[in-house]
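Figure 6 in text form: structure in, sequence out.
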């Protein structure tokens, strides 16, 4: 695959959303280490670091206006990017009806609509050059569901579907679309979850699972491999092997009624 095949004499160019914590910080470190030029898109304007080879820009990707502004201001980057990493994410922990539509819509915009918009923005240039990589960060939640995180679950399931469709369309085009679908990963993401009334037992279970999960730093080697592969694996499942395999088997072969009971128990609901 070798995503980093830029024009001779110039470093490859990557666009990364959500670069300042968790998996995003790992991705940014590894891209810099490999000599990429990076456009790093962050929601927060506070304390954006200065880093060689990295252009930091501030954009609220949870709004259509923020996405439109980014695409307009950084059109050259989107036309010439060799790699797009759709990583930005957020979560709200609370029952779907208590959340209401506004926080749900912001999550769907950030983790589904924005990745679609950004992917469609880089595709014409990648198709023209006959190479490129779009990496969509999804989640096992898209296959199994997470109670009291309906917005997050829906967005990740939708992004998986979009990724599969592009893989079918772009086969043999030289443009690769991959899904990075982790299980539980210990990072700042859980500390940033907005808690909106979920049962205490669910939050305690989440904290317990996160304490036992591999840290985001453990995925560095896998990301390095992904950047240098000549042939792309359609979906990557980084994380705790036992959890990834259990979710894989359950989502494909376990009767739905049984899977619902198992997932509820995993999150402390039965």
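Output sequence:
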């Amino acid at each position: 695959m070798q995503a980093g095949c830029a024009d001779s004499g110039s470093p490859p160019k990557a666009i990364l959303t959500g670069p300042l914590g968790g998996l995003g910080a790992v991705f940014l470190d590894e891209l810099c280490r490999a000599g990429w030029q990076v456009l790093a898109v962050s929601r927060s304007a506070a304390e954006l670091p200065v880093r060689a080879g990295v252009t930091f820009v501030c954009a609220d990707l949870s709004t259509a206006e923020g996405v439109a502004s980014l695409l307009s201001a950084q059109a050259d980057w989107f036309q010439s990017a060799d790699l797009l990493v759709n990583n930005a994410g957020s979560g709200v922990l609370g029952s779907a009806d208590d959340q209401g539509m506004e926080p749900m819509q912001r999550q769907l915009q950030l983790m589904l609509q924005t990745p679609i918009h950004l992917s469609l923005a880089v595709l014409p240039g990648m198709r023209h050059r006959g190479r490129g990589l779009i990496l969509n960060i999804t989640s096992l939640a898209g296959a199994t569901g997470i109670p009291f995180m309906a917005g997050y679950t829906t967005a990740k399931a939708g992004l998986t579907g979009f990724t599969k469709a592009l893989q079918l369309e772009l086969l043999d085009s030289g443009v690769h679309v991959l899904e990075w679908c982790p299980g539980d990963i210990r990072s700042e993401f859980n500390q940033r979850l907005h808690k909106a009334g979920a049962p205490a037992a669910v939050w305690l279970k989440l904290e317990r699972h996160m304490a036992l999960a591999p840290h985001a730093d453990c995925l560095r080697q896998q990301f390095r491999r992904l950047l240098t592969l000549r042939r792309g694996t359609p979906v990557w499942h980084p994380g705790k092997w036992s959890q990834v395999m259990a979710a894989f088997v359950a989502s494909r072969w376990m009767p739905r009624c049984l899977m619902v009971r198992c997932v509820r128990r995993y999150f402390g609901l039965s």
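Caption detail: The chain has eleven helices and nine strands.
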